[in-house]
């Protein structure tokens, strides 16, 4: 069974840039997987950031961007701010009607 | 504005059943696929199920297949999750989410989320 992989944690300085990735234990994530990204702070519902690889959801600032880097989907946060400190989840669609979340990446801004 | 409000959660014993509801407003409910996603305490997000706008397509995660069933009533703008044979590992906050875009052509993504409802399975 293919697992969606994400780095467990990142630390970024305020104003800095961080890139999170989303891969598969078997195969590559491409645009054909329509990867999407979600942000969640503790105790809150998730917030949609990116869909279809690189389309920002309504109200999402342009310092969040999505792309494909090599064989993985990527989420880049530029000019990190304190309130970017959250968990970030990706979902690459592998077909068959089933969605699978990655394990999430915890981003700390300090 | 789009609103999704879950209800029906609570504390139940293992082996029993529960039905969650998600009332939708602010959009044409009958035109959208809808999902359930859950999150166990201190764990990540886990997709549970999806249903098409006309109920012709339903898919469930392997972890709940045969025990949970997603359904909807477009006349009531409501999506349901019937949960049977509940286990301790089903303890989680359950979110309903709207699918954005064309699910069939572009795959799933979740564009609006409810606030979630807690289900606790414990003896």
Word description of this protein:
The complex is a heterodimer of chains A (110) and B (123). With 110 residues, chain A is mainly β. Chain A is 0% helix and 45% strand. Chain A has strands at 4-6, 9-12, 18-24, 36-40, 47-51, 55-56, 64-69, 72-77, 86-91, 105-109. In chain A, the strands form two sheets. A six-stranded mixed beta sheet of chain A has the order 2-10-9-4-5-6, with no helix packed on it. Chain A has a four-stranded antiparallel beta sheet with strand order 1-3-8-7, with no helix packed on it. Chain B is mainly β and 123 residues long. Chain B has one helix at 103-106, and strands spanning 3-7, 10-12, 18-25, 34-39, 45-51, 58-60, 68-73, 78-83, 92-99, 110-113, 117-121. In chain B, the strands form two sheets. In chain B, strands 2, 4, 5, 6, 9, 10 and 11 form a seven-stranded mixed beta sheet that branches. A four-stranded antiparallel beta sheet of chain B has the order 1-3-8-7, with no helix packed on it. In chain B, a hairpin with a 6-residue loop joins strand 5 and strand 6. The longest helix of chain B is centred in the last third of the chain and has 4 residues, at 103-106. Chain B is globular, with a radius of gyration of 14 Å. Chain B starts with a strand and ends with a strand. The model of chain B has no long low-confidence stretch (mean pLDDT 96). The A-B interface holds A 33-34, 36, 38, 40, 45-48, 51-52, 57, 87, 89, 91, 93, 95-104 and B 35, 37, 44-47, 50, 57, 59, 61, 95, 100-101, 106-116.
What is the helical fraction of chain B, as a range of percent?
Answer: under 10%
Number of beta-strand segments of chain B: 11
Which stretches of chain B are low in confidence, meaning pLDDT under 50 for 5 or more residues running? none
Instruction: From the alpha carbons, calculate the radius of gyration of chain B and give it in angstroms.
Output: 14 Å
- Tell me the number of helical segments of chain B per DSSP (H or I, 4 or more residues long): 1
E-strand count of chain A:
10
Task: Determine the mean pLDDT of chain B.
Answer: 96
What portion of residues of chain B belong to β-strands? over 45%
Structural category of chain A is: mainly beta
Shape of chain B: globular
| Quaternary structure type | heterodimer
Major beta-sheet overview of chain A: 6 strands, mixed
**Most extensive contact:** A-B, 26 and 24 residues
* String of helices and strands of chain A: EEEEEEEEEE
Instruction: State the major sheet of chain B.
Output: 7 strands, mixed
Structural class given helices, strands, pairing of chain B?
mainly beta
């Amino acid at each position: 069974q293919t697992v969606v992989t994400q780095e467990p944690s990142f630390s970024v300085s305020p104003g800095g840039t961080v890139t999170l990735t989303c891969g598969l234990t078997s195969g590559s994530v491409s645009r054909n997987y329509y990867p999407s990204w979600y942000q969640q702070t503790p105790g809150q519902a998730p917030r949609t950031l990116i869909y279809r690889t690189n389309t920002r959801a309504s109200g999402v600032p342009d310092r969040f961007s999505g792309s494909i880097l090599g064989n993985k989907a990527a989420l880049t946060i530029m000019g990190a701010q304190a309130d970017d400190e959250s968990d970030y989840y990706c979902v690459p669609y592998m077909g068959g009607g089933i969605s699978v979340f990655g394990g999430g990446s915890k981003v700390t801004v300090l | 504005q789009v609103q999704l409000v879950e209800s029906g959660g609570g504390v139940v014993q293992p082996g029993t059943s529960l039905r969650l509801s998600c009332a939708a407003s602010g959009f044409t409910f009958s035109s959208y696929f809808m999902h359930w996603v859950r999150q166990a305490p201190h764990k990540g997000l886990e997709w549970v199920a999806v249903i098409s706008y006309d109920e012709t397509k339903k898919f469930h995660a392997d972890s709940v297949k045969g025990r949970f069933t997603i359904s909807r009533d477009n006349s009531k703008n409501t999506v349901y999750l019937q949960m049977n044979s509940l286990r301790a590992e089903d303890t989680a906050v359950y979110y309903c989410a709207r699918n954005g875009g064309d699910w069939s052509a572009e795959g799933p993504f979740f564009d609006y989320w409810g606030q979630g409802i807690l289900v606790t399975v414990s003896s």
